[in-house]
Amino acid sequence: MSAAASPSRTGRRGRRHREGRRHREGRRDREDRRDRKGHRDHRDRRGRRLAGRAARYAVLLLVLAVLTGPIAWQFLTSIRGRTENVYDGVLPARPTLDNYARVAESFPLLQYAGNTLVVAALAVTSNLLFSAMGGYALSRAGWAGRRAVFTVLVATLMFPFESVMISMFLTVRGMGLVDTLVGVWLPGAVSVLNIMIMRSAFLAVPREIEEAAVLDGAGEWTRFTRVFLPAAKGSLAVVCITSFMGAWDDFLWPLLVLTDSEHYTLQLGLKTLAGATTTNDQRIIAAGAMAALLPMMLLFFALQRYFFKGVGEGAVKT
Hints:
Blueprint: H1 2-78, H2 98-106, H3 109-139, H4 146-156, H5 165-174, H6 181-185, H7 192-203, H8 207-215, H9 220-231, H10 233-249, H11 252-257, H12 266-273, H13 282-311
Helix pairs in contact: 1-13, 2-13, 3-7, 3-10, 3-12, 7-10, 10-13, 12-13
């Protein structure tokens, strides 16, 4: 019996050994297939990420070309020589700065730039003051009619300037401010959008900081000047840049208010460069436009750190 049973036990052990080996081989095959599939999935995901990143960079480069292309073309046009064709190639054959000197000779550039700077300085100062005070008032609870005032201010954003400029002109004329720089500045003394920007910035200030200032005995004006304004430096930079750009670039309102060329702003002065009475040289027009663009670029580069900080200041709490 033992001699007969021994081969059967040996056969069973052999079958179990073979089955175990096949099982181990099958498990290794499954693991290899899983690993190969994981590598393929990883490569596919990496390829999709690279493709998405390449698409984003392509879109950004396209937007960059659309935004900076006209400025670059304008600058290259402004440094072309008198004998060069404006549309002959991209880069000028003989770059020169003579066109900028010709701009100063064609019209009183410094006088018009000075007038514009006065209006822009008044606009920046008044917007910083009134928008900060208005935004602070709208961000504080505890006074009746706050929501109604906020709703009315937001509703005024729906009306374009062209729909109210006649009534504004009649008001300025009634005040005797026609053909004055004050009349140019007055409609832009404060912007509703700037008030909304400052309101969002003040709402983002934690309530605990204000409560701590109250416990320390700080009054309303002290809290406004010592707590809220320092916390909203970025938004103040945004208001400064937008106010300056709005006053520096404005063309339609000064065209309605000003009649004496002595009071012209820079944008009205640049209009004369394209007129038949002065010149129709595209090189001089481009040089004048670049001269008008330079102060805005300098202001933005000087305040860009605060500007990008202020863009997101109201994102925490609105």
